[in-house]
Amino acid sequence: KAIKPTRVFLDSTSHLRYLSIDLHQFRKQLLSFTRFLLEQEATVLFTSEGTQSMPDDDVMYLSDGVINLE
Known about the structure:
The mean pLDDT is 83. The protein is 43% helix and 11% strand. It has helices at 13-19, 23-39, 57-62, and strands spanning 7-10, 43-46. α1 packs across α2. The N and C termini lie far apart (35 Å). The protein is α+β, with helices and mostly antiparallel strands. The chain has a two-stranded parallel ribbon with strand order 1-2.
């Protein structure tokens, strides 16, 4: 909070998923973190590594835009 960043790059949200107890907890933590950064008026860019077995639809829901790289 003291730093007041204007831009934040988070690489990768997929790694945060492994630190969470379950999917619900991950979504809750990511939403809370995103809201905090937006309250600080920061521009947030994050990456995610979705797979068929673990899609990243929840992360896409939080964003204003999505760029898919294959």
